[in-house]
Amino acid sequence: MGKIKVLDEHVANQIAAGEVIERPSSVVKELVENSLDAGSTKVDVSIEEGGLQLIRVADNGSGIETDDCEVAFFRHATSKIASGKDLFHIRTLGFRGEALPSIAAVAKVECVTSPSADGLGRKLVIEGGSVKSFQETAASRGTDMTVRELFYNTPARLKYMKTIQTELGHISDYIYRLAMAHPQVAFTLKHNGSVLLQTLGNGDLLQVVAAVYGTAVAKAMLPVQAESADYSIAGFVSRPDMTRSNRQAITIVMNGRTIRNYAVSNAILNAYHTLLPINRYPVVALHIGMDPALVDVNVHPAKLEVRFSKEQELVRFVEDAIGSVLRGQVLIPQAGRPT
Ligand code: ADP
Ligand code: MG
Question: Whose CA is nearest to atom 25 of ligand 1?
Fold first, then answer.
């Protein structure tokens, strides 16, 4: 008898959860991305105690068909790709089919969902990967996911959680970026009942920038807009006298996905060249568009890091677009601006 065994689904999900669900903000990210993939125009996020007690994401998207409710929580179950070919044309935020089973493996989940406007839906309760109940319920069209007691059955992971403030910081940072990535979606973020962010969903990126950073910052933003054969860029960069002490306020959105990419953020900073004071960084909210074939998003489970096949070209394009906006400004240094 050989010694090698295929792990059962439950154990496999717990292992995957360790990778996909690192902290409360990972749950928020996965749930909100599902809401966006479902075509929602309104996404309400409520958090309690930094997300360790409760994370609730309610959307008005497509909802989940009755027959799909339980399947959605299976490993590698996705409605977003059907074959390997599809990996090269990804337009959705998710595609791995790992989020829901991973979350359900390490928390207590309640999913209320309806694909129709008839007021009827389904409620599925899953705890630690086991289905507790599945029944008919009153529900409006869309999906309402509640995740309670994250990591309740993985004490080792729970021990690594930082303070409520730190966990909340990760969550709000992510929601702010998503709101800037999707100005056409109305987002609300609440923590312990108080509203941290509310966007209108009217497509106005500058309104979102104002909601996130305040009106003083929004007033100091310069519009950027450019297009080449391969790329397009649109959004806002701050005047060089409106800066921050770190790169945190640089948001780069690539084909609707917020990304981290060192080359692109350096291109932005290089465009400012000597205009920025030393160790100061601009506020940036930029949307970059390109053929999905030119970018590989399948690098990391959290899909934050991406690889570009023509990185040098992209870098030059971004630097030129921002550089020409900044050079077009008459720059009058002002002392004592808020940061
Ligand atoms: P993925 O997003 O990679 O497909 P998930 O585990 O996150 O995998 O979700 C599994 C499936 O459940 C999705 O493909 C989708 O069909 C369905 N689903 C999850 N969340 C929602 C939602 N908020 N609205 C509609 N469908 C959803
Ligand atoms: Mg998903």
Answer: 63
- Direct distance between the N- and C-terminal alpha carbons of the chain, in angstroms, rounded to an integer: 67
Q: List C-alpha distances in Å: 22 to 17, 120, 256.
A: 8, 34, 23
Structure tokens at 234: 């649109």
Dist CA 68 CA 43 (whole Å): 21
Give the type of residue at 208: V
Please report the sign of the dihedral spanned by the C-alpha atoms of residue 80, residue 82, residue 86, residue 87: positive
Ligand showing the shortest atom-to-Cα distance for residue 79: 1
**C-alpha 96, offset from chain centre:** 15
d(CA 302, CA 316): 27
ipTM of the shown complex: 0.98
Name the CA dihedral angle for 137, 140, 145, 148, rounded to a multiple of 10 degrees: -60
> What's the distance, CA 257 to chain centroid?
7
- Residue 314 and residue 260 in contact, taking contact as beta carbons nearer than 8 Å: no
CA–CA dist 246, 170 (Å, integer): 15
Instruction: Report residues whose beta carbon is within 6 angstroms of any ligand 1 atom.
Output: 30, 34-35, 38, 59, 61-64, 72, 77-80, 94-100, 143
pLDDT tens digits, residue range 280-313?
Answer: 999 999 999 998 888 876 655 555 677 788 889 9
